[in-house]
Specification:
The protein has 17 helices and 20 strands. It has about 600 residues and is of the alpha+beta class. Helix 3 crosses helix 5, helix 8 crosses helix 9 and helix 9 packs across helix 11.
């Protein structure tokens, strides 16, 4: 992988500022408490890979992107502003039409090479987005939105970097969809609602709020808790210093993008519609999200070899636009997320059936939408320097899985006029073992789950994530074997296939079919070829031995001693060569 990064050269051609097509209202925009808790979190970065028709001129397409970006910024003009401190010391947006940063770059890797490799994550992908600091003043100055268009022979990559204090996932995809609409020359379907003053507390004294664990009350669940925000005695507000971050950057680096310090690999798992239905059946989950998340949570904690006595967490971010008072429109542009967190022990999670994890996640989702929780979150964030990391710290996070994005976002519908993207990836992960969920290209019936782990932990996750059922099978494949390969299997085999697993980078070993032991051995030594495909079918069968006999030559042969050459003797220590030949006999054929 280091060799790949060394071979790839990203050259930055030019950078300019793109301003709204017409001057917009100059003013200072209020940032709500729900925005400020994301102030120290790393920016939202995405990669979109496109392969326009050869008839599309690259220069004109880039100019078209700039022009449509300028048009859409008229509606989303705060993104062209800058963060600044107000008179009270509170961060706010200076809506000054400062502009969005737009960078043109090129890369010397042919687009076809990336496509053949299934857009498998490379180190140099990080250079396809604008480089920004993680926290503190590094993340408070400069453009709120940066776009980088990197040209490759046969295609291009659009990298986006958006400050998280400006938007959550729902608002980001709202903006991207609107930009694509402008690029195609159509009126944006859903203009944004920009006013964020709905949570302004004014003269109201905020309540003292704590984040406390509550036992889940359910006949199906034991030894599991969900955290809820609870109003405390007013004196607690003065006595409690929890949540004040002395050094936000030091706290942040313990949480976000550990790949900057630890060598990790990125892998995407493809959950087909059939797999999801099977997981829902076995987990009792009513939603695809719960079924997939439950399975991933269990397996990634096992892959990380968490001690059984340790506490493990599950964190999700719930869109609560309809849960605040008064409710917000779906087009509200900003942050409106509630952080739901559940805990149990590694022993309970790993050694319980998948239905346990699914029930915990279901209860967690319900708790996020309780009537008081969003109001309490707004009050909790009223104290200076409160941020998202503090909630995690109050809960005692050590081992856990957090969910990023959602499969309901139509990430493959971002069409600028030359077709939908061939690949969409997150450029950053904010935690080892996190889940980045997105819908697949089949219109949302399947789910893609991306994650990052150290090499050895990813190998364990590959083995456990889908090998879970009885009488089931798994199709293990590496890029460039595409998920569509699954539908080409015979029907009777496809019904017993749990999933397609995308293997990590491979080396020089050549081969076709591999048995499971060979796969596990070669995975450890790195000797898996990028074109290796293995179909391993687990079937329960009973073999009855009827009789055994020795078959001699049809007529006697002369006794003699046969010489074995040196080439023969070299193979003496190896196992015998064994083959299975399967025949389909006519019904009328007598077996005997």
């Amino acid at each position: 992988m280091a060799d790949e990064a060394a071979e790839a050269v990203v050259k930055f051609r030019r950078t300019c500022g793109v301003k709204p097509a017409i001057p917009t209202l100059t003013h200072t925009m209020f940032l709500s408490n729900l925005d400020l808790i994301w102030l120290h979190i790393n920016n939202f970065q995405m990669l979109f890979f496109y392969s326009p028709s050869p008839l599309v001129d690259h220069s004109s397409s880039v100019e078209g992107l700039k022009k449509s970006l300028s048009s859409v910024l008229v509606h989303f003009y705060p993104l062209a502003g800058r963060l600044k401190k107000g008179e009270s010391g509170r961060m706010e947006v200076d809506c000054n039409d400062g502009g969005v940063e737009f960078t043109e770059a090129s890369i010397n890797i042919p687009f076809q090479d990336l496509e053949r490799d299934g857009f498998r994550r490379k180190h140099y992908f990080q250079k396809l987005v604008h480089e920004v600091g993680l926290s503190g003043e590094e993340n408070h100055s400069g453009p709120l939105l940066s776009i980088q268009v990197s040209k490759k022979t046969g295609g291009m990559c659009i990298g986006t970097t958006l400050h998280h204090a400006m938007a959550d996932g729902n608002s980001f995809w709202h903006f991207m969809t609107s930009w694509a609409e402008c690029s195609r020359g159509i009126t944006i379907a859903k203009p944004p609602q920009l006013d964020r003053t709905f949570v302004r507390r004014g003269e109201k004294n905020p309540l003292s709020i704590s984040y406390k664990a509550h036992e889940i009350v359910s006949s199906e669940i034991t030894e599991a808790t969900v955290f809820k925000l609870v109003a405390e005695d007013p004196e607690h507000l003065q006595q409690s210093g929890s949540g004040y971050v002395e050094n936000p950057k030091e706290t942040l680096e313990k949480w976000v993008d550990p790949g900057m310090k630890t060598e990790v690999i990125y892998t995407t798992f493809f959950f087909t519609e059939e797999i999801i239905q099977d997981l829902k059946r076995r987990s009792g989950a009513s939603s695809s999200f719960v079924a997939v998340a439950a399975q991933f949570w269990r397996c990634v904690m096992r892959a990380r070899e968490v001690p059984l006595e340790e506490t493990v967490c599950f964190l999700l971010l719930a869109d609560c636009r309809g849960r605040v008072n008064p409710p917000l429109l779906p087009t509200y542009f900003g942050n409106c997320l509630y952080m739901g967190l559940a805990q149990t022990t590694a022993n309970t999670l790993i050694n319980s059936p998948i239905s346990f994890a699914a029930d915990v996640i279901h209860q967690l989702i319900n708790s996020c939408y309780e009537e008081t929780q969003m109001d309490h979150l707004i009050d909790w964030a009223e104290l200076p320097n409160r941020n998202f990391i503090d909630l995690i710290r109050e809960a005692g996070w050590e081992y856990g899985t957090n969910v990023i994005s959602s499969p309901r976002f139509r990430v493959y519908d971002i069409d600028y006029g030359w077709g939908k993207p061939l690949e969409v990836q997150t450029a950053t992960m904010n935690e080892i073992g996190a889940m980045f969920l997105s819908c697949a290209k089949d219109g949302g019936k399947s789910i893609l789950v991306s994650t990052c782990l150290p090499q050895h932990q990813m190998e364990v996750l590959h083995r456990f994530l889908f090998l879970v059922g009885e009488n089931r099978s798994v199709l293990l494949s590496a890029y460039p074997v595409k998920p569509e390969t699954l539908i080409k299997l015979p029907v009777n085999l496809r019904k017993n296939v749990d999933s397609v697993v995308l293997l990590p980078s491979a080396s020089s070993h050549r081969g076709n079919a591999r048995d499971l032991k060979a796969y596990q051995r070669d995975l450890k030594t790195g000797e898996i070829d990028s074109t290796t495909v293995m179909v391993e079918i687990e079937l329960q069968a009973v073999l009855k031995m009827s009789r055994t006999s020795i078959v001699k030559p049809a007529f006697p042969t002369p006794p003699s001693t046969m010489f074995l050459s040196s080439l023969d003797l070299l193979l003496l220590p190896f196992n015998s060569s064994q083959r299975l030949l399967f025949y389909k006999l006519p019904p009328a054929n007598d077996y005997s």
